[in-house]
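As noted in the main text, all predictions were made from sequence alone. Below is one such record, for Glycosyltransferase.
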Amino acid sequence: MARISKLSIIVPVFNEEKTIQDILKHLLELSLPDNIPFEIIVVNDGSTDGTYELISQISKKNKKISLLNHEQNEGKGAAVRTGIKKAAGDYIIIQDADLEYDPQYISTLLLELKKNAIDVVYGTRLHRLPHLDKEESRARFLIHYFGNRFLSLITSLLYGQWITDMETCYKLFPRSAVANMKLESRGFEFEPEITAKLMKQRHRIHEVPITTVPRGYEEGKKLNTVRDGIRAFLTLIKYRFT
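Prediction:
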């Protein structure tokens, strides 16, 4: 693996005033392998609470943070695409703002990248069951869990490469891989789209186990398991044959 000169951490945000200060604090405190320098690109996706104002205050005090703004909510995929255009690092990772994913695992992904002849690393949550008490109901959790398992299996079968957690937020990839990639998705279907296109470019995706603290729907979880699951399935089919 070539030496990483800079890492871009893209944080898409929509109505996360309760968690945005904490996640930015954790990111700013990161100590990455080999002291890799990093930038934090926060894309406010049309938040209607106090999220934008909080990010603005923090970014004025720290040059590592860049704040980009969508006047209206356009979706996670659109926010990530905006962040990619701004990214100056030779590697990019996506970080959700809701504290489900612990930023300390970013170092785990970077170390895996360093010790293997690979250029894309995903953090997989599906090596074990997450904490059920953070889900709104067991039935709803099971739909989400097995839905993700199913979509990951479909991804593996369609694209000829085994993967266990296609929907994970933690995707570490070279900026060069997406620089000329025509990304189209605006919502959560961004996850299957970028995975499909990385695989079609013949990038080998390596997975490392991570642990998350799933957020319940009463805490603001935005993913609609059935609707977004159907969209993800159709996205995987679409990009396999186009």
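The two ends are 30 Å apart (CA to CA). DSSP finds eight helices and seven strands in the chain. These features were considered when defining construct boundaries for the mutagenesis experiments described in Section 2.9.
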